[in-house]
Amino acid sequence: MIAVLGLVVGVVVGLLVRPEVPAVVEPYLPIAVVAALDAVFGGLRAMLDGIFVDKVFVVSFLSNVVVAALIVFLGDKLGVGAQLSTGVVVVLGIRIFSNAAAIRRHVFRA
Amino acid sequence: MSDENTPQEPPAPRPADAGAPGPQPGPTAPAMTGRQRLAAGLWPPRVTRAQLIVALLLFVLGLGLAIQVRSNSDSSALRGARQEDLVRILDELDGRTERLEDEKQRLEDQRKELENSSDQAEEARKQTVEKERQLGILAGTVAAEGPGITLTVSDPKHLVESDMLLDAIQELRAAGAEAIQVNGVRVVAGTYFSDEDGGVGVDGKKITQPYEFKVIGRPQDLEPALNIPGGVIQTLEKEQATAEVVRSTKIVVDALRAAKQPDYARSSSS
């Protein structure tokens, strides 16, 4: 419950405060958000499976974000940033879908 | 996005929680493992370390999500664009600006040209109208008014002949008369006088005494010109006619004459 509240508070604060994102981080923010979403879905699935460990969740969340940003950064340096970020988004999207499917089976039994 | 939480790594039994997008079917679920865990995680709320850590991470996620959505929606697509894209867009805009600038310059030149030519046309038209009025007064196609004199010749014995009237006309012209009419007939360059029974013909139209000349010109010049010794008036009086000159500040010469297209004479200037 508190975790859900955390998400809601984050969205509200982001909309109200309108913080300035440093220009250096800006290109990586969308990818990082998608990566974090993947981690959250993974965590939710683990919880429904009864194998949720908060340490694992924290590590996967952070490493997802960092690795996604790193890949995009590397792609920018190599001159294939656009293509690489597309690739990352596709891979993460697939993972999110498979996790969502597992969650769906738990929740709806279907 | 960066690290927000680090040092917590408890064994963490299985507190079971995460941000469920929508718990619609969850809390009222009957006894089923997955649903039960979800329901247990959502209600009642328990403050455990795992809950707090996950809440923190989800807070960061929500923050990033909101920022990204916001920046995407409020400042077009340029915000997330890559450097090379931006450079390309900038180049395109520069080229476009240049082209539009050129076009603007061209159109402005054109406009100036058109304005000039229409000004000139307007000026030429005005001059033409002015000239037409002036020529119309000479040719007798328009009415004229201005200072001048009225010369009335009474000839009860019908002794006045056409050459005397012609002399009078010549004298008036020499004195600077600009528009003349005799008994309602406009006197122009081609006017001729002829003798008729009991009167005088002007341009083939018979007029009878008293002959009334309406003359526009400078009265101070016209009157003395008629009065000079041995001049028009004395000659007329010798024929027992009376001539009377009245100055006026406003003489109206309103007898008109149709403009006539010359049959043979052509303008030799182009």
UniProtKB/TrEMBL annotation, chain A:
The chain crosses the membrane at residues 29-48, 55-74, 80-103. Its main location: membrane. Coiled coil: none annotated. It is a multi-pass membrane protein. It comes from the Bacteria. It is found in: Cell membrane. GO terms for cellular component: plasma membrane. Keywords: Cell membrane, Membrane, Transmembrane, Transmembrane helix. InterPro entries: DUF1290. Belongs to the sbp family. This is Small basic protein. The lineage of its organism: Bacteria, Bacillati, Actinomycetota, Actinomycetes, Kitasatosporales.
